[in-house]
Structures are given as structure tokens and as C-alpha cells.
Design a protein that fits this description.
This protein is globular. Helices cover 39% and strands 14% of the residues. By secondary structure, the protein is an alpha/beta fold.
């Protein structure tokens, strides 16, 4: 088995993630904020420690502003529904995932929210100037992903953040493809709302993620759901302080503890070195497939300005059949189709047929990459 679908979810998970989660479920199993006994307090300390590690990783100065959710999609829905009102306008990139497009499309129908797409080229690049040109009088926010889940192109979020600050706009970033891989500093990049997931580049389990929020935005942004928090139980009103304001209901404690273990491993092995290894593998793959007949590298041609993600379009051949044959013949697992990002594929010129996406993890070997390249060549010869 050669797993080349890291953009869907990381595999294998960081060492110890499964064991930590199993230990909690089998040997501990307590709830926090509800149980008034030592074991519950011990688990709560671990949850707080996870917030602190995430705040440190993303340049946050207050772990209370690290909010746990099921992931990026939930977090972005919370942002859109809590921040946007009738008639508001939003600027987005042409590379957005449906985690952005579907909430915006619904709000366009239900609240009259409008959005403009900043001009995006065929390599998935979007300049700061393109975002600036799309700003209108009623623009309230700029929302963009950090890197494309389709082709890996990284957007200049630090420069876009300065633009948002200078124009008095909210700045929300979808960090699904970069959190734990590409450095993010919410303060330095003027990010008001950073959505992240735990199960991709952080190496944690499914179903846990969250967001970081500025103090100013937290005073304005309404929660998506309200209910029991284990705090202020004398009141039928939702607490207005963090993190309780946005964390109603029983928390995903096994997921948080698994994420904590993944963060410990990330700190142990150095985020920069992991990224460099993944990019070396990506470079090897790109050099192997570039120039092959009837194969288009969708997006950037080199590893500059991208993540460890490569999309290929096999021209007149059926991309789905290529992906099927790669798995059947060589055990190579990829993702084929539109990757929940039809807007991105429109920008890249790969809509509606999509691409075969290869995304690389640091655990892979050079031989794994060479096998994938040779398999593609064999299929093209057949």
C-alpha cells in the first residue's frame, strides 16, 4: 500500500495517537466541566494543555481563544453565520473549498449576503492586488484558504492580512491544508479567525479541530449553537466568556487528547524538517511526471509556493480510470474528481472532469514516489 491521499486525511497518524485515545476510553472515560473529582480535573489539565500548545503553534497569546469544534467546516459555518448580516459583502479567492462556498451560497439566498471572487490565474495564484480590486463599499470580510486542497498553491495570507487590517475588514483563514505544516502566526498575519483541523497536517484524529479568534471579534461573533457548558449553570443564558461561549455540549475529549499527542510529536520532530521532507518527495514526483505526453500538471510547475500536493489531468484519458488502475495494479491510493472544490477547478481549467490528486506524507520513501511515477508511465504506455 502506498498512501498518497494525505490531503484527505493523514495516515499513518502521529505515533501514540491511537493509544492515548484508547487509554482514555478504556481506563479514564470521565467528562470535564461536569465531574467534581480528581480524574476529571486531570483530564481538564490535558485539555488546557492542548489549547496552550495550539496557541503557541499559531502565534496566539491567549489559550482561551482556542476553541474546539469538529473541524474547519463547522468553524467556518460558525464564522459566516455569526459575522455576516443582511447585505454584507465578502471577498474570497477563486480556489475556495465548498466549506466556504456552500455556507456563502446559502447566506446569499437567506440573508442577501454577496461575495466577489478575486481574480485567480491557472496556477491557482491570487495576488493581494486582486483581493483589493474586489473590495466594495459594503465589504465586511476577506475569507480565503491558506493553500489549495486541489493543487497545493499557497496564498500570500500575510500580505492579505495587512490589506484587511488597513481597510478595516475582518480576515478569516481556512488553514485545513497548512496547519502544522506551513507556519501560521495569527498576530503577525492579522488573522481575526483561523479555522484548523486536527486530522490532516497535524497528524491527529478525525472529528476534532477548531478555530482561533481575536478578542475583538469574540465580542461580536454569535455562537452557532448554545446549551450546556458546565459553567454558569445558574443561568439560562449562554456564557459570554471564552472558551465557553462557543463550546456547548459534551466535548470530543478522546479527539482532543489524540490531537494533544499529535502536537507533542510535531514539537518533537520539528515542523520545518517535516515540511522539507514532504517537499523533497513532491519535487521528486514533479520531476518524474513533468513532460509526460497527455499529462498536465495542474497548478504550479515546481515546488516553489506550494504544499506537498500535485494534481494531474490525463487529457483524453479517464482520470477516474487512471486512479482505479493505480490502486488495482500498484496499491497506490489517490483522490480523483473535483475534491469538494468546483470553484477551484473552474479557476484551474480542470472543471468538470477534475484531476487525480497526489499528496505526500513525510513517512514515504523515495522508492514509493518512484513506484508512483513508473506506474503512471506504464499506464500511459498501455
Amino acid at each position: 500500500m502506498i498512501y498518497l491521499d494525505q490531503n484527505s486525511t493523514s495516515f499513518p497518524k502521529a505515533p501514540g495517537v491511537g493509544e492515548v485515545m484508547c487509554d482514555y476510553l478504556v481506563n479514564r472515560g470521565v467528562n470535564i466541566g461536569r465531574g467534581n473529582y480528581d480524574e476529571a480535573y486531570t483530564v481538564e489539565v490535558d485539555v488546557i494543555d492542548t489549547r496552550e500548545r495550539l496557541a503557541s503553534l499559531f502565534g496566539g497569546n491567549d489559550p482561551r481563544r482556542v476553541i474546539f469544534t469538529p473541524g474547519v467546516t463547522f468553524s467556518l459555518n460558525l464564522f459566516f453565520n455569526g459575522a455576516l448580516e443582511e447585505g454584507d459583502h465578502v471577498v474570497i479567492s477563486g480556489m475556495e473549498h465548498n466549506a466556504v462556498m456552500r455556507p456563502l451560497s446559502r447566506l446569499a439566498r437567506t440573508r442577501g449576503v454577496r461575495y466577489s471572487v478575486a481574480e485567480t490565474n491557472r496556477q491557482g495564484e491570487v495576488s493581494t492586488e486582486a483581493f483589493e480590486k474586489a473590495i466594495e463599499k459594503k465589504t465586511k470580510a476577506i475569507v480565503t484558504l491558506h493553500a489549495s486542497n486541489v493543487c497545493g498553491t499557497i496564498l500570500p495570507i500575510e500580505a492579505i492580512g495587512r490589506l484587511a487590517r488597513d481597510r478595516g475588514l475582518l480576515f478569516a483563514v481556512d488553514g485545513a491544508q497548512t496547519a502544522g505544516s506551513v507556519p501560521i502566526d495569527v498576530a503577525a498575519m492579522n488573522i481575526d479567525f483561523l479555522a484548523f483541523t486536527g486530522h490532516k497536517t497535524l497528524g491527529g484524529p478525525h472529528g476534532i479541530g477548531g478555530f482561533l479568534i481575536t478578542e475583538a471579534l469574540s465580542k461580536e461573533l454569535e455562537p452557532l449553537i448554545v446549551g450546556g457548558t458546565g459553567s454558569r449553570s445558574d443561568s439560562m443564558e449562554q456564557p459570554d466568556y471564552l472558551p465557553d461561549k462557543y463550546e456547548s455540549g459534551t466535548m470530543n475529549i478522546p479527539g482532543i487528547l489524540g490531537l494533544r499527542q499529535a502536537l507533542i510529536e510535531l514539537e518533537r520532530h520539528d515542523q520545518r524538517k517535516i515540511f522539507e521532507r514532504k517537499m523533497a518527495l513532491t519535487d521528486r514526483f514533479l520531476k518524474g511526471v513533468t513532460g509526460l505526453d497527455d499529462v498536465r500538471v495542474v497548478g504550479l510547475a515546481t515546488i516553489d509556493g506550494r504544499t506537498a500536493t500535485v494534481s494531474l489531468d490525463f487529457g483524453e484519458r479517464d482520470n477516474a480510470l487512471i486512479a482505479y488502475e493505480l490502486e488495482r495494479g500498484w496499491g497506490i491510493m489517490t483522490r480523483v474528481g473535483l475534491h469538494c472544490a468546483p470553484l477551484a477547478h473552474q479557476s484551474l481549467g480542470s472543471f468538470p472532469h477534475g484531476t487525480v490528486r497526489f499528496s505526500f506524507g513525510a513517512h514515504l520513501t523515495d522508492d514509493d514516489v518512484d513506484t508512483a511515477v513508473e506506474a503512471i508511465k506504464t499506464l500511459l504506455e498501455g
